[in-house]
Input
Amino acid sequence: MAQLAHKVAIITGASSGIGLAVARLFASEGAKVVLCGRRQNALDALTAEIRQHGGEATAVAGDVRDEEVARRLVDTAVNRFGALDIAFNNAGSVGAVGPVADISTDGWRETIDTNLTSAFLGAKYQIPAMSERGGSVIFTSSFVGHTVGFPGLAAYASAKAGLIGLAQVIAAEFGPKAIRVNVLVPGGTDTPANHANAPGAGPEVRQFVEGLHALKRLARPEEIAQAALFLASDASSFVTGTAFLADGGVSITRT
Output
């Protein structure tokens, strides 16, 4: 039996990278998915792909920093599919980059809003919708800010670290209602947003990033999606309040 049969899931940042891989996997495992991203065309293409393979999907385009988008996602899940069981709050961006003294206040706030406030807004509406039959809320963090401090990424690291504190509190508050809340902490992943794939980055950049990991490579998005599936499914029924590492050993490597 499919691991997410009869489940309804919201996935943000679904148009590329980890979010795209998770959307495909959750749908293939039986979930009815509500997809969110800023690019309507990409969401429409993914929705059509999922339906073509026999899945059920719908899309809500918008910016996750907008509280109304968070509300619409939950309303769409409940009105279209009848419930909400899983929320994969994955959307984010590196944001303002540079030494702390050079980061503008506006850049700081935008980075925090994109990566942390958006997760708060998502959970604010997702949790009540899960209160009757329980559910799983997942935030995507990063090894940056959790086990590694990269110079120039103060805003991003702060936001990603904040997700862990947010998840711990929500897990404690809503555990009695069978709502589990966890943070997925990926290592370097081979996505368009990865620094190793940035325009102008030479092979030495990718080699450096790969070398930070015990496995000496980047993850494929599909590998991180498998970790998200574990946290979303009943296989992790006694797992909550955790920072769940799928980091290829970057947190323990010094070679």
Summary: The mean pLDDT is 94. The domain at 8-191+222-246 is CATH 3.40.50.720 (Rossmann fold).
